[in-house]
Amino acid sequence: MFQYYFLLGVRSLRRNPALTALMVLTLAIGVAASVATLTILHVMSGDPIPHKSDRLFVPLIDNGQPENYKPGDDIDDRQMSYRDATNILNSKAGERRTAIFGISLAFEPARKDIGAFNAAGLATAGDFFNMFEAPFRYGQGWSPADDKSGADVIVLSRELAEKLYGDTDPVGQRITAGGIQFQVVGVLDKWSVVPRYHRIIGSNDGAFSEEDEMFIPFSSAIRHEMQRNGSTSCYDDIAPGFQAFLDSECTWIQAWIETRSASDRAELQSFLDSYAIEQRKLGRLKRAAPNKLYNVREWLDYMKVVGNDNKLSAWLAFGFLALCLVNTIGLLLAKFSVRAAEVGIRRALGASRREIFTQFLIETTVVGLVGGVLGLLLAFGALALIAMQSKALTLVAHMDWIMLLTTFGLAVLSAILAGLLPTWRACQVTPALQLKSQ
């Protein structure tokens, strides 16, 4: 019986092509608008490393000045001073530790067909690659000994490696960058992390920036007194010179700590609190503010990666879908009202209200399926247009299988909901009145 009613629903689409087209288009536009917005929100709010997001922590230590500070105020800076970052790196907190700041180097390729160019990347500790599970195409990251000595080694992104060396393994090659000879020890494979949780601060597009092009040891960047490519906050004037800057309370480094399990969080918090007490004895951390730990999900929330504007856009899109459903209900009422005589005859011949209800609801589902296909095409088009606006939007304006299925499900569900009232009204037809009018 379902197959019979389904075929009737397909045929009914041709009874009034103009009305059917208007219903399908109305439903498709509403579904496309809501799904496109929901897709972007879904990508932006996703967990980028779900199997260990509760074991990766950002520590925040408030080293601000006590003036105008009130207990309970939020920490002004989300980064660390050099002193705090290196103390954490040299500690035994957690299983792995890293410190990160942005750099930009001028590359001088050996190839004559490529001129000098700038590339942006990170100065970080060797644990970085294992902590964030960066995939390697060639080679590997540098060793703890390289971290300790500040070795001039470098890991390239796949794109930068192909630009410099083509599709060959460049491990062991030497490249001049920033006037320094670096030895290539590894090449990352394609590594598109969305949201880019490990490097939100200091990058142009925040959590939706493009991949970093190269990585060098944190200690090497410090040894060469490299300029920072990112944000820096200083409360007081500092003396001239790089060492004076390192000794200052300026915050410009992002720290991360990985624990063996989520249950080690309390132990890590205890370490931070003990560290802060020691530093206060040395005359630092004068605010005596509580130290904070944020795992990946908490960090994304704290940094407002998904802002109120994004959530409002999603609600507005669903409001637009609701408006489209109201219009679809009106169109379905008009479509079913002209078939009152047909319903009356079927009822007189013995069809029950349940059978009429089932038939018309299946016909509505057919409308939802057609609207879903069209809505999916419109959603793909909308996402393509959004992706053209900026490189950051390119990372989030794409549809996965979850959203693909959601599009069809939303279209069919919307059509069924819109068809409940018209279908119920169609079942209330009185057979005697309809037969009398014929």
UniProtKB/TrEMBL annotation:
- Topology of this chain in the membrane: Multi-pass membrane protein
Tell me what organism the protein belongs to. Answer: Duganella flavida
Q: What is this protein called?
A: FtsX-like permease family protein
Q: Where in the cell is it found?
A: Cell membrane
Give every ABC3 transporter permease C-terminal domain span.
Answer: 316-430
Gene Ontology terms: cellular component: plasma membrane
What InterPro entries does the record point to?
ABC3_permease_C, MacB_PCD, Macrolide_Exporter_MacB
Where are the bilayer-spanning segments?
21-44, 312-336, 356-389, 401-421
Q: Keywords in UniProt for this one?
A: Cell membrane, Membrane, Transmembrane, Transmembrane helix
Q: Which PANTHER family match?
A: ABC-TYPE MACROLIDE FAMILY EXPORT SYSTEM PERMEASE COMPONENT 2, MEMBRANE COMPONENT OF TRANSPORTER-RELATED
| MacB-like periplasmic core domain segment(s) | 20-268
Gene Ontology terms, MF aspect: transmembrane transporter activity
| Main localisation | membrane
Question: In the record, what lineage is assigned to the organism producing the protein?
Answer: Bacteria, Pseudomonadati, Pseudomonadota, Betaproteobacteria, Burkholderiales
